[in-house]
Amino acid sequence: MVTPSHGHNLTTKKMKSHKDLTVYKTSIDLVVAVYNLTKNFPAEERFGLTSQLRRAAVLFHQILQKALPEIVKRNLLDFYIFH
């Protein structure tokens, strides 16, 4: 049995949606962090490195957003393995 630092027993907590997964929440935080970091990049990087980093972060979140609901729906995750 895995017990995270906040004290919830992961084997008894029911997942309502893919949005309950830590990996999903963290992917949103990643997008926000990348946008905050890259807003201070030089203007000449706007279409280079800035754009690549932002697109990569958003793509990662989009892939999770598309794949996780199907995984949850099929009941392949009976407890949080992403914590």
Properties at a glance:
disordered N terminus, 2 helices, mainly alpha
The assigned structural class equals mainly alpha
What's the tally of helices?
2
Low-confidence stretches: 1-12
Proportion of residues in extended strands: under 5%
What general form does the structure show? elongated
Q: What is the terminal-to-terminal distance?
A: 13 Å
The average pLDDT score comes to 78
Can you describe what's shown?
- The chain has about 80 residues and is mostly helical.
- It is built from two helices and no strands.
- It has helices at about 20-40, 50-75.
- Helix 1 (about 20-40) packs antiparallel against helix 2.
- The protein is elongated, with a radius of gyration of 16 Å.
Would you kindly provide a brief summary of this structure?
The chain is 51% helix and 0% strand. Residues 1-12 have low confidence and may be disordered. It has 83 residues and is an all-alpha fold.
What is the topological layout?
Layout: H1 22-38, H2 49-73
Helix pairs in contact: 1-2
